[in-house]
Amino acid sequence: MTAPAHVLVVGAAASGLTTVEALRRKGYGGAITVLGDEPHPPYDRPPLSKQVLSGTWEPARTELRTGEYLAGLQAEFHLGDPATALDVPTRTVRTQSGRELRADAVVIATGVRARTLPGQELLAGVHVLRTLDDSLALRADLLAATRLVVVGEGVLGCEIAATARTLGLDVTLAGPLAAPMALQVGPLVSEALAALHTERGVRLRMGAGVAGLTGAGGRVTGVRLATGEVLPADVVVVAIGAVPATDWLADSGLELDNGVVCDARCRAAAGIYAVGDVARWHHEHLGRLLRLENRTNATEQAMAVAATLLGEEQAYLPVPYFWTDQYDAKLQVHGFLPVDSQVDVVEGDVTARRFVARYHHGGRVTGVLGWNMPKQTRLRRQEVVDALRSTPAPIP
Amino acid sequence: MKVVVDEEKCVAAGQCVAAAMDVFDQREEDGIVVVLDEHPPPELADEVRNAAAVCPALAIRIEE
Lengths: 396, 64
What we know:
The structure holds two protein chains of two kinds.
Chain A: E1 6-10, H1 14-25, E2 31-36, H2 51-54, H3 67-72, E3 76-79, E4 83-87, E5 92-95, E6 100-102, E7 105-108, E8 112-114, E9 126-127, H4 132-143, E10 147-151, H5 155-166, E11 170-175, H6 182-199, E12 203-206, E13 210-216, E14 219-225, E15 230-232, E16 235-238, E17 242-244, E18 260-262, E19 267-269, E20 272-274, E21 279-283, E22 288-290, H7 295-309, E23 321-326, E24 329-335, E25 342-349, E26 354-361, E27 364-371, H8 374-379, H9 381-390
Parallel strand pairs in A: 1-2, 1-7, 2-3, 7-20, 9-16, 10-11, 10-16, 11-12, 18-21
Antiparallel strand pairs in A: 4-5, 5-6, 8-17, 13-14, 14-15, 19-20, 21-22, 23-24, 24-27, 25-26, 26-27
Chain B: E1 2-5, H1 15-19, E2 24-26, E3 33-35, H2 45-54, E4 60-63
Antiparallel strand pairs in B: 1-4, 2-3
Cofactor (chain B): [3Fe-4S] cluster
Keywords (chain B): 3Fe-4S, Electron transport, Iron, Iron-sulfur, Metal-binding, Transport
Function (chain B): Ferredoxins are iron-sulfur proteins that transfer electrons in a wide variety of metabolic reactions.
């Protein structure tokens, strides 16, 4: 396979930029064009719910690379110009401003959009957090507010609750699960997280679905739970997950099903690939499609696709990794943590908030989780790698 | 080649250690990156560049 003469990357965040960097690092000398929907130079998202929201970082610190470095990549960046359509047979992308870009290979890296509650756009004081502008707008509102309700007890909702509490707000965290991040980490750790948030003064309203928002004069006044209870709020953050940004591909003919469906090499069609949050590819060790919304995958998948574009074809077989920082708790996860896993604490002590837990499912190790023990957790990653490689089988 | 790390940006993922274990380690207490060899030999250059590339916090800079 010869390298494509022109690569078009649609998306200018971590996965898009990494694709470009990896191509250049491997010596690719062809033309590269990058389309970004936001006007900002490529920036990093994990700090948006933590350092940027708390104000400990200036927004510019999230920039992934300096202007000088970006210029050195010899790529043409068109920022603030979202893609609106893709013609698959000719690999031509149309943009909002009317550009028509044709390439030999197209890499889709458009990420995800925050899911919203019906009617929330009609009320001031209701936020989502996905972009840098989202984070700055939320911060401005929080600085003028007293009571925050966070809808959604996933990783993002928990981080926002912790940051806002640190800023001194009265914070309520609401969601349908039994405890924070119960879907991501299972009962043992989510109960420890519930204790942590409660101790820090966050009011938890767990096990309660959200029915809607209340407002007056065009501004939000609270969150109505399915039980009828209303949680009063000056500001509300809706953190109920994200949907792949594939609207622009609706008429492309690509298979779209909770993301851009790809083969084991992250290929959606001839000359068309997907990377990062938007990509749902066939993970051969799991034997099923997988889509990951985490920072490490954005990098690793982009590097894998860059290699594939240059003829070093290999199946993409990552061991997923994510982390979350809440107050002084640093949680790190390698692998998979099915909710009905058997969980053993293999180092440290849960009550001391310093431990490593190993997750077993279907008779094998599927993942490890560390709480304030990053190095010790990483040292056990190999157990997950070995188990996944030796007995390929679906993990729920 | 010189390796420079930003401890404040480091998120203690340990991806760098997995990529280049002769050059990077993590502190026992909090997992923050430790550089074992600030001037790695040429034969480790690819590993080190890879370590910088996989860092999820872009906390590793390489001066060639």
